[in-house]
Fold:
Amino acid sequence: KTIKIRSAGTATITANQAGDSAYNSATAVTQTLTVGYFNLQADSFPGIRLWLDANNVDGDDTADTIAAGTAIVQWIDKSGNNNHAGQATSSIRPTYKIRNTGVNYGGGMAEVSFSSSSSSNLDVSGDSNIRSIASVIQIGQAYYSQAKPFGGDQFLINNRKFTLGAIDSGVDGHSTSVVVWQMVPGAYSIHVDGVNKGSSTSSLTPAAFNKVGNGASVNILEVVAYDRALSDGVRQKLEGYLAHKWANLASTLPSSHSYKVTKPAFGGAQILTFQPVSDKQAGQSADLTITADSGLTTF
Structure:
């Protein structure tokens, strides 16, 4: 039998053998299979350059034990490229905060909060390889300035809205959003909560991204950057991962998009097999064996 993944959740698979002229009937056998949402890994997609997660500021395998209000000296890069975001000057360090339950999404999880006077540095020269940035981000309520929250030469915020140079998304950034900026020469675009809000064929190569915050009043929950354009499939997986991880954001994705419930990284048709019991074994107990890959949900 072929099983296709339709959504995250749990399904009970039942194998039946009614019996015929060649085979005895067999007792039905069930197996419960569970699949969760796509969980990003550093090697899930090629070309990762930067990965900062506010719920794992230390970038390790243990839960953070940081008190709310703590100034962040260094935000560890989980991509493996050592693009850690650090600030040696104590007066301009960002702050670790816990988001209130039910307020602007991501309730109960962490954020790194930057004011208009705080910033972190990636390194001296920055990362000149970055071409696509996906982030869960919120603009300060009273912040209407033009800003480059990741440094370089790209204005990604203006008038409390998400932008990409001259492209204005028209989306009020005070509500936490999943934003994907793509800055590949000839293929610039900005997506907000899964919707294309503008594109251009600009031939410009972006300057190295060398900051986080960079004097913009923003709360950053997570940011993942790549050295290439993202296909629609990859972008949607990233959006799905980010939206489901940060509570309540999944409801902001377009209802027409199937990735609103994200499939596993290696999802696809799976095979369910069972061994029929021959009539030559009449009188013996039926032993019906189910063999299936994990990560299945529904037919």
In short: Confidence is low (pLDDT under 50) at residues 260-275, 277-299. The first strand starts at residue 2 and ends at 3.
